[in-house]
Amino acid sequence: MEETIKTFPQHTCSWLKGKLTLYKNQDFWNVREFHEGGIMAQQSFEARPSDVFVCSAPKTGTVWLKALAFAIITREKYDESTSPLLTTMPHECIPLLEKDLEQIEENHKNSCFPLVATHLPYNSLPESILSSNCKIVYIYRNIKDVIVSHYHFLREANKLPLEDAPFEEAFDEFYEGVSWYGPYWDHILGYWKASLERPEIILFLKYEDMKKDPTGNVKKLAEFIGFPFTYEEEKAGVIENIIKLCSFEKLSNLEVNKSGKHRAEDVNVAENRIYFRKAKDGDWKNYFTDEMIEKIDKLIDEKLGATGLVLK
Ligand code: PAP
Predict the structure, then answer these.
(1) Could you tell me the domains of the chain?
(2) SS3 label, residue 204
(3) pLDDT band with cut points at 50, 70 and 90 for residue 266
(4) How far apart are CA 220 and CA 113, in angstroms?
(5) Cα 277 to averaged position of ligand 1 atoms, centre (Å)
(6) How many alpha carbons lie under 13 Å from residue 187 in its C-beta half-sphere?
């Protein structure tokens, strides 16, 4: 498969000094390893109807959503002082469809753990997920903040100092649609259209709304994935404890997330700390020129205006 993928249209990111090459297949860009994993999942993955998929484009709140979903479904077994989240990066708590197929199959055989994460676009999800009517939770975020987050993540992953990584070039590339699992607007549109057709199986969550109203959104999430909070739990403060445990402040200060690594054996982006940067809404204002704002806003209107989603 490696050789086949190398025949796909490719783009080497010059602002990253050629350290990253993305390939285009099934209408989205990705690194070779994850294209390979996605294709394997499409060929062999058998979903269980009870599986719950945590879906997102990169840098839109994946780690946070994974931590929350994990804490919700494991709350009978662990509390905020015993949770594996205290010692394990959220990415390692939920297997990734395009990477951890064997682990997911093991979970299917040996446990009732329902969570699976993926960055795959909706149209590239394995057929069995859709035919099994699995629940899907999708998180999305202000596109300008995603661009800034994407920029710093790739810069840090490739160990480039700020002065060697021009933001303007990273912006242009993202604007042209070349980003991990991008174009980002197509990613949103795929899930959005599906959610209109099948609202009972797709929940849309917005990063900024989750910050404004964490309690309401965590309750919504728990209900949707089939683990609603009881009245007694609400009274006992279980929701607030989960929110605190999964907060940026808490997770980013844990030793595992400050100095740990994951997937170190095969991917260049292994340091956990780079998944926890600032988590600030509107950080884009520190990076965008007026011209960039005008360009991206126009594109967002063109591509996503009809959805009514607020993305700028
Ligand atoms: P991924 O798709 O590569 O896993 P993802 O988790 O989606 O990354 O996005 C990382 C962003 O979420 C970072 O945003 P920033 O660059 O603007 O700072 C990161 O700081 C933010 N983030 C990580 N953990 C949390 C959290 N617990 N709550 C809110 N935001 C978070």
Answers:
(1) 2-307 (3.40.50.300)
(2) strand
(3) low
(4) 20
(5) 7
(6) 27
CA 130, chain centre distance (Å):
19
- Indicate if 119 belongs to the active site: yes
Q: Phi then psi for 10, rounded to 5 degrees?
A: -135, 155
Q: Which SS3 state, helix, strand or coil, does residue 271 take?
A: strand
pLDDT digit string, tens, across residues 127-147: 999 999 999 999 999 999 999
The residue contributing the CA closest to ligand 1 atom 26 is 248
- Give the residue carrying structure tokens 């959005």: 192
Cβ–ligand 1 contact at 272 (below 6 Å): no
Q: What is the pLDDT confidence band of residue 96, given thresholds at 50, 70 and 90?
A: very high
Contact 194, 128 (CB under 8 A): no
Q: Packing angle between helix 143-157 and helix 167-175, nearest 10 degrees?
A: 120
User: pLDDT tens, 28-82?
Assistant: 999 999 999 999 999 999 999 999 999 999 999 999 999 999 999 999 999 999 9
Tell whether the model's pLDDT for residue 264 goes beyond 60. no
